[in-house]
Specification:
- The structure holds two protein chains of two kinds.
- Chain A is an alpha/beta fold.
- Chain A is built from nine helices and 25 strands.
- In chain A, strands 1, 2, 3, 4, 5, 6 and 18 form a seven-stranded mixed beta sheet that branches.
- In chain A, helix 1 (about 15-25) packs parallel to helix 7 (about 300-310).
- Chain B is of the alpha+beta class.
- Chain B folds into two domains: about 1-60 and about 125-150, no CATH class; about 60-120, Alpha-Beta Plaits (2-Layer Sandwich).
- The radius of gyration of chain B is 15 Å and the shape is globular.
- The chains are: A alpha/beta, B alpha+beta.
Chain lengths: ~425, ~150
């Protein structure tokens, strides 16, 4: 049987990272990409900008149009993989093809969690928000039905970004969040309250500690939603953004080890020979603490993809552990959050500075003299230095007092670490 | 082949590099105009850090494994194929600030009015980056690559 040297299921961040990783080791052998979406590789986070008409279709591509040609990639787009046979080294597609592979990367990402027990959730006008096609369908629906008000279920990042797109279209939006605050997974109470205030100033209604229990629709379209407390909100569009989970369907029924995501080692190898996983579908080592968890954030996916690619092509690269991190603007308010931002125990030391009037907040969480988490709101310009300290596990006991000062910069860091980062192998000119 | 290095033992913190960098990246490229009329719309792409008697100028290192390229969600941050420089395609940048979050040098800033990432571009089109060309004390220098790590 003919075997393709490299097959990648998926066409997003981790997949593109893998292409670049493979090509850093192997310049020629063909790469096959199979994706159930029919688009050229595109930037998933841009779908909220597309919805809000901040970018157009042409701006959606994550890599240039000639990327596949230049990298000797055969892209099978709009093709669903229905099963993988690790022993035979083959996979099967919904259109009846069987493909042999030498190396396979599973980079299928995540899929939106379907709300359980919501009556009428299949009605027209109810959407998820994770793909370009989702954004397009929502846009079409908004135009067709002249949507004036919407409800977003879920106050996490996807919920907030979809809300932003709607607000930019002038649609009156309500966010319904089950927890007692928005962005609860990445922010602490203070930061959540600041984000909430920004939303409310822009006319968004935020309802916490509540959820949608049923959607009311008729032939003519959506009428509204009913909440757990039996109150009712009139709206003609609902977006469910209550989270994503690793999209592991392709390995169901195989003996590839799966927990929440597909378990991988530090070289992104699954439990099956020649099969790798990376990105939101993978469950890899953590940077802080033991064990493995899926951490569905962009930089992790890109790096895991590259590491998988290098290893697939016979090189050697290792994952040093993942950490949650997000940079996001909430209706123009810049924010960065890294790692453990709201520790539940008292073994952490907290440094923080808040200026509510100026919408400035900085918080650094330390454990055993190492930075394990941070939040920046407003002035985020040097947040990356702190992220570097987290990633490199730098002992900050000598300069802890400087971390939140205005003057804090590379000069505050130990000379050796500073030399290391400024003289790391950069480029030649 | 040469690389930019910062020599903190020679930097006197005069900040001429910041001024030349700002002018170079202004629309007019004229110092008086840049400071009088464009001050709110242009930033120097490098910054001088100073603490006591130690100072040095810091700009993007154009890292070989660039965290900012990896974290860029649109593909705007990219490596120029000809020069290897790490550049931001400002038409494609949407100002999500992922690059700022991951740059361990803190070498990227939010553009002052354009809502795109602002960083060193090695002065495309010039023989030498203006910070190197105008440093009075050679504290920002170009060095042969094999000397850099020595």
């Amino acid at each position: 049987m003919h075997r393709e040297p490299y097959v990648i299921i998926g066409n997003s961040v981790a997949a593109m990272g893998a292409v670049e990783g493979i090509r850093s080791v192997d310049a020629d052998r063909p790469i096959t990409i199979i994706s159930n979406e029919s688009h050229h590789t595109y930037s998933r986070p841009l779908i909220s900008y597309l919805l809000g008409r901040k970018v157009g279709d042409d701006d959606m591509l994550y890599r240039p149009p000639d990327f596949y040609d230049k990298n000797n990639i055969r892209a099978w787009l709009g093709v669903e993989v229905i099963g993988v046979d690790p022993r035979a080294g083959t996979l099967e597609t919904a259109d009846g093809r069987t493909i042999g592979f030498e190396n396979l990367l599973i980079a299928t990402g995540g899929k939106p969690i379907v709300p359980p027990d919501v009556e009428g959730a299949e009605a027209p006008g109810v959407f998820a928000f994770t793909t370009w096609d989702d954004a397009r369908r929502i846009q079409e629906y908004i135009e067709e039905r002249q949507v004036e008000s919407a409800v977003v279920v879920g106050g996490g990042l996807i919920g907030l970004k979809s809300m932003e797109g709607l607000v930019q279209l002038g649609i009156r939006t309500t966010i319904v969040e089950l927890a007692d605050r928005i962005l609860g997974a990445t922010f602490d109470d203070t930061a959540s309250a600041m984000a909430r205030r920004r939303l409310e100033q822009s006319g968004v209604t935020v309802l916490c500690g509540n959820t949608v229990t049923s959607v009311e629709g008729t032939e003519e379209g959506l009428k509204g939603v009913v909440l757990r407390d039996e109150s009712r909100i009139e709206c003609s569009l609902v977006i469910f953004a209550i989270g994503v989970r690793p999209s592991v369907d392709v390995v169901r029924g195989t003996d590839i080890e799966v927990d929440r995501g597909i378990l991988v080692d530090e070289r992104m190898r699954t439990s099956a020979d020649g099969i790798y996983a990376a990105g939101d579908v993978a469950q890899a080592d953590l940077l802080l603490g033991d064990g493995k968890l899926p951490i569905p954030v962009f930089p992790n996916a890109a790096r895991q993809g590259r590491i998988a690619g290098v290893n697939m092509a016979g090189g050697e690269a290792r994952w040093r552990g993942g950490i949650a991190m997000n940079a996001v603007e909430v209706l123009g308010l810049p924010t960065v959050s890294v790692g453990l931002t709201s520790p539940g125990d008292d073994q952490c030391e907290i440094l923080s500075e808040l200026n509510e009037e100026e919408e400035q907040y900085r918080k650094i969480v330390l454990r055993d003299d190492r930075v394990v988490g941070a939040i920046f709101i407003g002035d985020i310009d040097r947040a990356g230095i702190i992220t570097g300290l987290v990633r490199e596990r730098i002992d900050v006991s000598e300069f802890k007092d400087l971390l939140l000062t205005k003057e804090f910069g590379l000069l505050s860091l130990p000379r050796e670490y500073r030399k290391h980062i400024v003289s790391g192998r950069g480029i030649v000119v | 082949m040469k690389r930019i290095v910062a020599r903190e033992e020679y930097c006197v913190g005069c900040r001429l590099c910041e001024i030349h960098c700002l002018v170079q990246h202004s629309k007019s490229k004229k110092i008086i105009k840049a400071f009088r009329e464009e001050r709110d719309s242009v930033l120097p792409r490098l910054r001088v850090e100073e603490s006591g008697c130690v100072s040095f100028a810091l700009q993007c290192r154009h890292c070989e494994q660039a965290s900012c390229i990896e974290a860029c969600m649109t593909g705007a941050m990219h490596r120029a194929p000809e020069t290897g420089a790490v550049l931001c395609d400002t038409d494609r940048c949407v100002g999500c600030w992922m690059c700022i979050m991951v740059c361990p040098l803190g070498a990227i800033r939010r553009g002052p009015d354009s809502h795109v990432a602002s960083k060193c571009d090695l002065c495309i089109g010039e023989d030498y980056p203006v910070c190197v060309a105008n440093c009075p004390n050679e504290a920002i220098a170009l060095r042969e690559e094999d000397e850099v790590n020595a």
